[in-house]
Amino acid sequence: MPEDVEMNDSQAPAAAASVSAAVGDAPAPAQSTLQHLKEIASVIEAGSLSKEVRRISRAVRLTIALRRRLAARDIAAFLAFALPPSSDAFARLSALVPKEDGSEMDVDTAAPTAQLSIKHGLPEIEIYCYLLVLIFLIDNKKYDEAKTCASTSIARLKSLNRRTVDVLASRLYSYYSYVHELTNTLAEIRGTLLALHRMATLHHDELGQETLLNLLLRNYLHYNLYDQAEKLRSKAPRFEAHSNQQFCRYLFYLGKIRTIQLEYTDAKESLLQAARKAPSTARGFRIQCNKWAIIVRLLLGEIPERTVFMQKGMKAALTPYFELTNAVRVGDLELFRSVADKFSSTFSADRTRNLIVRLRHNVIRTGLRNISISYSRISLADIAKKLRLDSENPVADAESIVAKAIRDGAIDATLDHANGWMVSKETGDVYSTNEPQIAFNSRIAFCLNMHNEAVKALRFPPNSHKEKESAEKRRERLQQEEELAKHMAEEDDDDF
Fold it and tell me: Long-range contacts made by residues 229-234, C-beta under 8 angstroms, separation at least 24?
């Protein structure tokens, strides 16, 4: 899909210091990639034994930081370290890792103070090995082997029900769908994703539900199955968002569905919220959100501000949409056609070409509004000439367009059928109408909505609402603290 953008949970800095800090050891100079992988495995082991999901999440982020340094010999050596040689997982994964001729296994040159060892047989370590090999195969464009690895890992995940595996499983789901998308075989895994989503729901795996719901929505939208995507979204169980990245993706897909269903107001809100919540490093994702948001705002009759197109790192990507906005703003149908033809390949790649076809009516309406403001009376033939209508009977088309605009309230004018004129009424003071009140009310609603979302995002200690102390207990506590402080001060004076 053209708008596919990888959004990491966090952009980890240098992996060497981070991995060493994760296990509490002093960072050794010039550690090898293999040693880093061993330390990450010890972090996963500690998280598995203590049932701390945050350690597993940190191990995944540290792995992403090491992603570009992974080599086949490092993967092979780590598999021999982390998995029992007689296990099925070791045999399957070792067969998928390519052998490097003329090179031996990576040897740790750092010589750490203590040799690391892990407990074999932990499901978290096994699933992590699947994830590591899958990432390596995708980066090296070995898609057939990657599909085999992904399918094997999914089959293994179906037999596990551990909350410490959920973070690793969500990553495997994402790469499982991604490798099939790269090979254009997304339709083949739709049934598997639905079964995995049902399993995640039964296991109360909320992170897996978020990830799989987004993958299914992406799967449907890839084949333009918007009705099926909306049915799935509306019937999926509700849950609180645990991953900001997955929530942003959900808002983006929801905005696309709403746009196709002509619900432009809800689509605009979802797309702008997705662009605002997305990490600053996810530039490609934010560009796609802005592209769709610009089209939706134009369909609503709004003109986006120039600052939208001048955002840092987005100017070149949003140039076609800037020229399109300019054509809609001036209401020039000929300019609109030339821009649509000039950037047709870009609009097709972004899957916004069908939406731009809808904008033709908005361009005509904008041009007609400008004409009604400029002229108190103008013939329908001149209107057809100024709008550049290229139909067989432009005067009749102009008359129908004017009549529809008057009926919809887009312009304040009347039609003189006998003389073939459009007579515009005098423009009144806009501040005597309800338009300023409506605009002000929409801004207030936006601010209140943002405030409510910020309040919902706050974190409070558990049972804090049950432990509210009364005024009398508070006075007693303060009095006891003052007496204790006074007593300690007297003891200090005695010691001195």
Answer: 229/253, 229/257, 230/257, 230/261, 233/257
| C-alpha 27, offset from chain centre | 34
Closest CA to 193 of 165, 224, 217, 166: 217
Q: Give the CA distances from residue 45 to residues 24, 122, 125, in Å, rounded to whole numbers and listed in that order.
A: 14, 8, 7
Q: At which residue do the structure tokens 């598999």 appear? A: 79
For residue 125, what are its two tokens? 């370590």
What is the per-residue pLDDT for 14?
43
Give the pair of three-digit tokens for residue 128: 């992590």
Q: Which residues pair with 423 in a beta bridge?
A: 377, 414
N-term to C-term CA, the chain = 76
- 98, burial (CB in 10 Å: exposed 0-12, middle 13-18, buried 19+): middle
**Among the listed residues 150, 209, 165, 199, the one whose alpha carbon sits nearest the alpha carbon of residue 57:** 165
- Residue 274 dihedral angles phi and psi, to the nearest 5°: -65, -40
d(CA 48, CA 126): 12
- What is the reported pLDDT for 136? 85
What Cα–Cα distance (Å) separates residue 153 from each residue in 30, 130, 184, 185, 481? Answer: 33, 6, 20, 18, 58
Single out the residue of 33, 26, 57 nearest to residue 44, CA to CA.
Answer: 57
Contact assessment for residue 291 and residue 350, using Cβ atoms and an 8 Å cutoff: yes
75, two tokens? 């993967």
C-alpha span between 293 and 304 (Å, rounded): 9
Nearest-angstrom CA–CA distance, 477 and 484 = 11
Give the Cα separation of 127 and 89 in Å (integer): 9
Write down the pLDDT at residue 468.
Answer: 57
Question: From the centroid of its chain, how far is CA 87?
Answer: 38
Low-confidence ranges of the chain (pLDDT < 50): 1-6, 8-30, 102-114, 492-496
